[in-house]
């Protein structure tokens, strides 16, 4: 059996790398996949990361090849060291995402390829002479970020290479819109629909005052990138005025959001909460959400 070889990504690798990326996406969020164009675009720039992407000074994509097949891939970023770059990103390098075939009894060499690729990634970070190295699993697909618990083989590669989880853990939840609360007959809650920071905002008013709002983003897939995520939306923001705590306003806002999502043809809604916020998690699970996965954000590797 020939040993795997690590080399820079070539355009001819695009089909196989996309298939490998979609294998990992499918384990996290149901019914979502990305196109070859999406993957190629992500290697050049990340327009959704409008704050951090302009800070990137250099990008590199590496693959591990065996028997003429791409069995692992990684995308790396080097951030500038000037004062315009945020302090935590300044002079940093990152493995933005890393994918590989999981080891199996019939494919024991899969881990060899992953380890070889990881050594090449660390060598590149060393050549870049970065202050600190970060790692993530931010594939160019909705809901896939951090290091999802569904990828134990990636976690093993990161940890064995010296990366440590230093950030927080988020719970990703999913609900069928059909299972969300519905507005009650005779509902008198005044709800105004406007443009929000993270999608369409629905604001509840009473006596001229805003009691709270929810924002739902129905544009998780950029049309020009042809991501298959139709029927999927997420909660970008959910805010309740402290004076309205305990009134059931969260549930009523969800009901109004669900009405809007049905008109949009959306059938699934995603929510994100910190693992430590049990109150918020309780509200969401009580309203029809169920845990999809947990993802660990913030992986760090310091040279030397």
From TrEMBL:
| UniProt cross-references to InterPro entries, sorted A to Z | Acyl_CoA_acyltransferase (IPR016181), GNAT_dom (IPR000182)
Q: Which SUPFAM superfamilies match?
A: Acyl-CoA N-acyltransferases (Nat) (SSF55729)
* Name of the featured protein: N-acetyltransferase
Domain annotation N-acetyltransferase: ranges: 152-304
């Amino acid at each position: 059996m020939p040993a795997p070889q690590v080399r820079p990504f070539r355009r001819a690798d695009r089909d196989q790398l996309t298939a490998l990326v979609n294998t990992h996406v499918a384990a996290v969020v149901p019914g979502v996949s990305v196109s070859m164009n999406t993957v190629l675009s992500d290697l050049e720039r990340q327009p959704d990361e409008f704050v951090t992407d302009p800070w990137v000074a250099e990008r590199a994509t590496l693959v591990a090849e065996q028997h003429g097949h791409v069995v692992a891939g990684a995308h790396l970023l080097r951030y500038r060291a000037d004062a315009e770059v945020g302090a935590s990103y300044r002079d940093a390098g990152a493995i933005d995402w890393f994918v590989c075939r999981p080891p199996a009894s019939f494919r024991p060499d899969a881990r060899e390829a992953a380890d070889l690729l990881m050594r090449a990634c660390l060598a590149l970070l060393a050549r870049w002479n970065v202050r600190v190295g970060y790692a993530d699993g931010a594939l160019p697909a909705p809901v896939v970020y951090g290091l999802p618990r569904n990828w134990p083989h990636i976690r093993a590669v990161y940890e064995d290479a010296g990366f440590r989880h230093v950030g927080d853990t988020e719970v990703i939840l999913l609900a069928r819109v059909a299972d969300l609360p519905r507005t009650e007959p005779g509902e008198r809650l005044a709800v105004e629909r406007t443009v929000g920071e993270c999608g369409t905002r629905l604001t509840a008013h009473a006596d001229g005052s805003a009691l709270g709002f929810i924002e739902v983003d129905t544009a998780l897939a950029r049309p020009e990138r042809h991501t298959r995520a139709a029927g999927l939306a997420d909660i970008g923001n959910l805010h309740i005025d402290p004076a309205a705590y305990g009134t059931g306003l969260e549930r009523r806002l969800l009901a109004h959001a669900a009405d809007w999502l049905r008109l949009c043809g959306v059938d699934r809604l995603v929510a994100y909460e910190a693992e430590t916020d049990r109150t918020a998690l309780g509200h969401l699970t009580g309203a029809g959400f169920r845990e999809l996965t947990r993802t660990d954000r913030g992986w760090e590797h310091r040279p030397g």
